[in-house]
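__Protein archive entry__

___
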Amino acid sequence: MTNPKIGGGSVVDRFAQMNRSFNQRSKSQESAASSSPFPAVSSEPQGSSKIEDAAKSGLGAVESSVQRTNNIHLDVVKGDVDLHEVAAQLKESEITFQFALTVRNKLLDAYREVMRMSV
């Protein structure tokens, strides 16, 4: 499976980078919340954390699927994996990636539509 280039890096690299930044942000928020005896007050609406969690888990699933596919050739060489499993893993990875790309495109279209609205 080839990685199409978008914005100077592969899509897989961009997803991994986004996932790392989400993880770093959540760790810094957890450490700040655990050091204070008072609950953290956020200026963001409460619903945004649910969206953020959904985005994190979705990107994590895509990243893990692509990583498994990237490393499956080593298992084939070792003889640990049957060719049917390789074909199934490749198809699963392709479908997962296409779904993530479709969701991304829909989000960008929605954002552009909101930006075109006059106030």
In short: DSSP finds three helices and two strands in the chain. Residues 83-116 form the longest helix (34 residues).
